[in-house]
Amino acid sequence: MKIIKNRSVLMGAAFLMATSAIGPGFLTQTTVFTQSLGASFGFVILSSIIIDIGVQLNIWRVIAVSEKRAQDIANMLLPGLGGFISLLIVLGGLAFNIGNIAGAGLGLQALLGVSVTKGAMISAALAIAIFLIREAGKAMDRFAQLMGFIMIVVIIYIAVTSAPPIGEAALRTFVPVKIDLITILTLVGGTVGGYITFSGGHRLLDAGVKGRGALQEVSTSAVMGISVASLVRIFLFLASLGVISKGLAIDAGNPTASVFQLAAGNLGYRLFGLVMFSAAVTSVIGSAYTSVSFVKSFSPKINRNENKVIIAFILVSTLIFILVGQPVKLLIMAGVVNGFILPVTLATILFAAYKTRIVGDYKHPVWLTCFGVLVVLIMTFMSGKVLYGMIF
């Protein structure tokens, strides 16, 4: 019974992480970058998958073995650091959630024909309903899995319908014509940056999957999460490539919707609405849950009323969207911003992995440490280069 329970929790954490990553920005970025890089975008996806797995394994393992959330680990390492990281995560999570609410509204508009505002309100109500259930954790796990499976099935269908040049995509994945550092930074940041990489790790902790004895399960869940997100990314890339290879013009105003419609007509447009809604509403849930998990250890009152605070977080995000409108630039820059946060959080976890007061006598794998340090250096270099380009 425990094995079955753990399997459900592991899948729930993996899908929570994956569906948190697969939001409106994820869908838009994948289509836009396929337009600009063509088949060579496969190399960017492969690079990001390798980096993502290294990041996830480092962070989730240290959280599990220390049996502490990321902000508490950071504060033990350097007093005040946890508060600083939490501030970055919460502000980023709130900003992203406004975009997620907008994306959910757009999805229901395409699927059901309702207005974007009404669609956003319906989506917010559904997300809030999850946290009104007594066993909200289990409900969140199951909902994330259901929406994840729906997205995978629909996007595979669109990819097959668009008939992409598989041979060229496979070749350019390993022998790219063009390499774009900003694109790699954006993809990594959008998949494991900001709050996203901690969503599954914190979920496992809350579900009681922790300690050195659970490391194998934690590692399996971490890799599963990246695999789900990557599977969606790969098939969406192939769907976009199939449309582009036929010389069809993609609408810059809503590129992903355009790909779905060009591949499968009006049915494709409706399916886009389903995928956009699924991606956005699960990201709303993941962002709210993880953002609040970063502050609940600072206040017993927040900890006792966690679900109420999560609901308030969703309500505030929805209200800002209704009053201000869709933050278009936010969706485009989401991955880049998260990419800036990633080196800070990953470096913190790597230092903590060697502090006995945090992890006891646990020995972090040397290869994971080396890989993590390499990722920190690469992401810092890329972030610096992008920032320099933005300023000058």
UniProtKB/TrEMBL annotation:
Pfam families, alphabetically? Nramp
Q: Which residues, by range, are in coiled-coil regions? A: none
Q: Does the keyword Membrane apply?
A: yes
Matches recorded under InterPro entries? NRAMP_fam
The way it spans or sits in the membrane comes to: Multi-pass membrane protein
Any one Gene Ontology molecular-function term assigned to this protein's record: cadmium ion transmembrane transporter activity
Its GO biological process annotations read:
iron ion transmembrane transport
What keywords would UniProt list here? Membrane, Transmembrane, Transmembrane helix
* Compartment(s) where it occurs, according to its Swiss-Prot or TrEMBL record: Membrane
GO cellular component terms? plasma membrane
- Please indicate if the UniProt record lists Transmembrane as a keyword: yes
Q: Which residues cross the membrane?
A: 37-55, 76-98, 110-131, 143-161, 181-201, 222-244, 271-295, 307-324, 330-354, 366-391
List the protein's name: Mn2+ and Fe2+ transporters of the NRAMP family
